Amino acid sequence: MTPPKSAAAHRPQKRWLRFLSVFGPGIVVMLADTDAGSIVTAAQSGAEWGYRLLLLQAVLIPILYIVQELTVRLGIVTGQGHGQLIRRHFGNAWAWLSVSTLILACIGALITELSGIAGVGLLVGIPAWVSMFIVIAGLMLMVYTGSYKSVERIAITIGMFELAFLIVAWQAHAHAAAMLAGAFELPLSNPKYLYLAAANIGAVIMPWMVFYQQSAVVEKKLKLDDLPAARADTAIGSVVTQLIMAAVLLATAATLWHTGKAQSLETVQQIAQALTPVLGEQAGTLMFALGMIGAALVATIVVTLTAARTLGEVMGFRHSLEYLPREAPWFYGVYTASLMLGGFLVVSGISLVKLSVGVQVMNALLLPVVLGFLFLLARRALPESHRLKGGYAILVALVILITAGFGVYAALIGVFS
């Protein structure tokens, strides 16, 4: 029997509304993926190597989706966070090993994000301690008084400022012939090139992304019917985050490397100055500031919540924004302590560029542990109907082995050469 025309007409609208209700965890974690450290790494890549690391940005899109889709599947099907699943299937010792790598990555990322914000503040004459006070107070107010949905909406809104980098890249007018030739010129025998290649891999696939997105879909209470929309959310985010990375690389390659001014960037101010020839000093500084603040703030939100949630999963205390601070004191306490520790370290003075690239290289070194647990859980924790199996399991295994293996190899060669 053919359904009434009115009912058929409403179906696309209902599907669209359903997608919008699911949309969020994927785009938030991907906007956080293009964090301050990633922006710095992409800028450094373009300034030092021109377009030679551009192809890697495209190659990482499907890899990023493959990894994060597994976290979506695990979270929606099992209804449990990543740390909780590791503890359940592998025991407390392995859970703490995994969480230790996560906390290490979170601390490094948090210092990077807050350093990026402090650097932007210095561009307009705001002392680092003032920037840190404003950011920490604002983020505490947001989390202490908001729900998951409100925090998610704020994170997406802030993250949209990262799209400013697309405008900067467009205005840089990169030469297509030079871009195409450079993208396929891969000096794999050069240790410095490999070091930045490892940093780019670590800048795209980060331990805290796996933990955050799985916990987010659980906290959002997504169901099996939401899985296709959640996958689409993740796919869209994977493309957006790599477009932003490529945009930053293109902009610095066009303004510095292609013009014969290749250099190693040392500060946020130098990166901003590299982009000002494209749009003019005031417009260039504004665009860079908006993009960097958006990237750093959304990543700060994700990193601090990830640390608090995952410790709660492993230690057994309440770890959700659905509880008030008095109902989940440990969760809010870890969140607050993380912010304050990061702010203190930033005010004490630290080199953002060197730290950022170093943190991304560390992420690359941690990939075997993070991706190894993810693969094993997808094979063990899921029911037969959703388990990772067959030819796709072989493909995922190869992607993980090649990605993690190259990341570790490139990092070690870069560090010890």
Q: What topology emerges from the helices and strands here?
A:
Layout: H1 5-22, H2 25-33, H3 36-49, H4 54-78, H5 82-90, H6 92-123, H7 128-145, H8 148-159, H9 164-172, H10 176-183, H11 191-204, H12 207-219, H13 227-257, H14 268-279, H15 281-315, H16 329-347, H17 352-380, H18 390-416
Summarize, please.
This protein is 80% helix and 0% strand. With 417 residues, the protein is mostly helical. It has a single domain (24-416), classed as Amino acid/polyamine transporter I.
What does this structure look like?
By secondary structure, the protein is mainly alpha-helical. It has one domain: Amino acid/polyamine transporter I. It is 80% helix and 0% strand. It has 18 helices and no strands. The radius of gyration is 21 Å and the shape is globular.
